[in-house]
Design a protein that fits this description.
heterodimer, A: alpha/beta, three-stranded antiparallel sheet, B: mainly alpha, 73% helix, 0% strand
Chain lengths: 216, 260
């Protein structure tokens, strides 16, 4: 479970303070998958970094119970100079997981062949996302934070993602952010719209769809 | 209490993983790898040995020239290189801070640990090789040598933390840091000992904590050298004050560390 109380986050920009999250309070419950919709720049990635704890709110409090993943997606996380395998080893080490298991799972899942032993610098963004996804699924989390990642790869990879999500949903929750309605529809049980620094939760997809279309 | 123990366990794991990773990214890029850590001080010692030799100069107080230069430069290196690496903990590791487990302080500690370990190994290799060459090894007090090196590392870590936080506020600091700290090279006892300078000058020189470190290392290494003016307590107090400032600043700039 992750609960936010009066969370505010702003970034200084050249034209003054840009408020990304404005006095936000909400609760993400266990074993429920949330899909958060937002247009580009609405603050989806920032929200995920705050939920994971990599960044801290300017004001307010975020409480977590259980293990929360890092935001899984295209951006960041890998050392470009190290190989995929070495990156997996590092992550397994910081999370106290078994190296061999994590490496094997991530290699199988990412399915990037010989690239697994080459520096991440040489990867395409799709390959990075596949590795990021495989690596995070190799470690047991209570909540997975996902940043658009499933939109990448071919249909076989997407099928694999869907399969693993369905299997995980029984014991973990997933919070996925996207600007695509389709992604959210596919993976989430509950829906939310992030706009103007606020997050509105809905049970009904049709309602979000309507609001999102007028917002976008 | 259990929360604290779990937190400490995670932190230990993270620092260990980071130190291993740093070793790989710092030294693993080239074939010669770790040898680079040796090359730099060896180059310094070689150059100045030749200068001493041509100028017909001897080391002060009956010390042999090579160990005299080695103890100076290696002590100085531990302090300054640790500071340098720690000050870039955030700048150089943004992708890692992506993992919530990894906090800037973990990176700083991992880097300081690696610099210290490297410093000790380089010291052992250079002075070990020299001892094999001359066929004699006399260490006055090994623990005092280690004390000097530890103090240098703690000092470097503390100063590095302050610089690291200031860098987050304004990274121009990294550009002016070099010229600003250059004088340290000349006043940290690389070419002299505190005992040989006039007491009027020594009074001022002893404000420099790095000089205390090199003095302590030489006191421990050479049976014939006694560092009368060096004080471990002074270095420790200096470090604790810097550490306090560094940690306070770190808390203040923490929300400003942007990951992308």
């Amino acid at each position: 479970m992750i609960s936010l109380t009066d969370v505010t986050k702003a970034y200084p920009t050249q034209s003054g303070l840009h408020v990304v999250l404005d006095n936000l309070s909400c609760v993400f419950e266990d074993k429920v998958s949330y899909g958060i919709l937002g247009v580009n720049g609405a603050g989806k990635s920032t929200l995920l970094r705050l939920l994971g704890g990599a960044e801290h709110p300017d004001a307010g409090k975020i409480e977590r119970s259980g293990r929360v993943s890092w935001p899984i997606g295209f951006a960041g996380g890998f050392s470009l100079a190290l190989s995929g395998e070495e990156n997996c080893r590092f992550v397994a080490r910081i999370y106290g997981a078994d190296f061999d298991e994590v490496i094997e799972y991530a290699r199988d899942f990412a399915d990037i062949g010989e690239y697994f032993h080459m520096p991440v610098r040489t990867y395409s963004s799709g390959m990075r996302a596949r590795l990021a996804f495989g690596l995070s699924m190799a470690i047991d989390f209570d909540t997975y934070l996902v940043d658009e990642v499933t939109a990448v790869g071919d249909s076989r990879f997407r099928e694999k993602c869907k399969h693993v999500f369905t299997e995980r949903r029984e014991r973990s929750s997933v919070i996925i952010v996207s600007h695509e309605l389709g992604t959210i529809k596919q993976y989430a049980d509950r829906y939310a719209l992030l706009r103007r620094g606020k997050l509105e939760l809905y049970d009904d997809l049709a309602e979000v769809e309507k609001l999102y279309k007028t917002a976008a | 209490m259990r929360e604290l123990a779990r937190g400490a366990a995670v932190m230990g794991r993270v620092i260990y993983a980071l130190a291993l990773r740093e070793t790989r990214t710092r030294y693993g890029q080239h074939r010669a790898g770790y040898l680079w850590a040796l090359a730099e001080p060896l180059f310094f010692i070689g150059t100045f040995f030749l200068m001493f030799w041509f100028a017909n100069r001897t080391a002060p107080g009956g010390m042999e020239v090579i160990p005299f230069l080695a103890t100076g430069v290696l002590g100085y290196d531990i302090a300054v290189k640790t500071m340098d690496r720690v000050s870039l903990s955030v700048e150089g590791n943004r992708p890692l801070l992506f993992y919530p487990h990894v906090q800037p302080l973990d990176v700083a500690f991992a880097r300081a640990l690696l610099e210290f370990a490297t410093g000790v190994v380089v010291f052992a290799i250079i002075l070990g090789a020299y001892s094999l060459w001359v066929g004699e090894l006399v260490i006055d007090n090994f623990l005092v040598v280690l004390q000097g090196m530890t103090l240098a590392a703690v000092l470097g870590l503390s100063a590095g933390l302050v610089l690291c936080a200031v860098t987050v506020m304004n990274n121009a600091v990294q550009r002016i840091k070099g010229p600003l700290l250059r004088p340290l090279f000349w006043v940290s006892g690389l070419f002299f000992t505190a005992n040989m300078v006039p007491s009027s000058a020594r009074e001022y020189l002893m404000w420099n904590p790095v000089l205390h470190c090199t003095e302590i290392i030489r006191d421990g290494w050479f049976p014939q050298y006694h560092a009368h003016s060096a004080s471990p307590t002074y270095v420790l107090i200096f470090s604790v004050v810097l550490m306090f400032i560094g940690l306070t600043l770190e808390r203040r700039v923490r929300p400003r560390v942007q990951l992308t």
